[in-house]
Design brief:
Length: 126
């Protein structure tokens, strides 16, 4: 559930999850914990939105499982941006983290940016 689309319907989704036949697993692809990087990615949410979503889920479903996706090595990502991502992961404590090295995709705003060396993306992805 993308944070952009989840935020406006969060209460309705959580109400639906009260049903015992629905397993409380939430996949929330965060992508980055840096507001700067999220903005450059064209995301319409910030790290505080992600924290609020996860806190809402955990307050209503303490045993819920949460997974997320992180992109490492986004063009222009700095060490500070990466540190902010690590910090966000410590705050939201997902049970599973899918880490992907950035790769350019034609037609996206980032496709025209200068890519980072694979070595850097590999190092940050560890």
């Amino acid at each position: 559930m993308n944070p952009d689309t989840l935020m406006p319907i969060l209460d309705a989704v959580l109400d639906a999850c009260k049903n015992d036949q629905i397993f409380s697993f939430f996949h929330i692809p965060v992508q980055s914990g840096s507001d700067s990087v999220l903005g450059q990615m064209g995301r319409q949410y910030c790290r505080d939105d992600v924290i609020a979503i996860v806190r809402s889920i955990r307050s209503r479903f303490p045993s819920a499982r949460i997974s997320t996706d992180i992109i490492c090595g986004f063009p222009s990502e700095t060490d500070e941006d990466f540190s902010q991502t690590i910090d966000l992961l410590r705050v939201i404590e997902p049970e599973k983290i899918n880490i992907t090295r950035y790769s350019s995709r034609p037609g996206t705003p980032a496709a025209s940016r200068t890519d980072m060396p694979d070595r850097f993306k590999k190092d940050t992805g560890r």
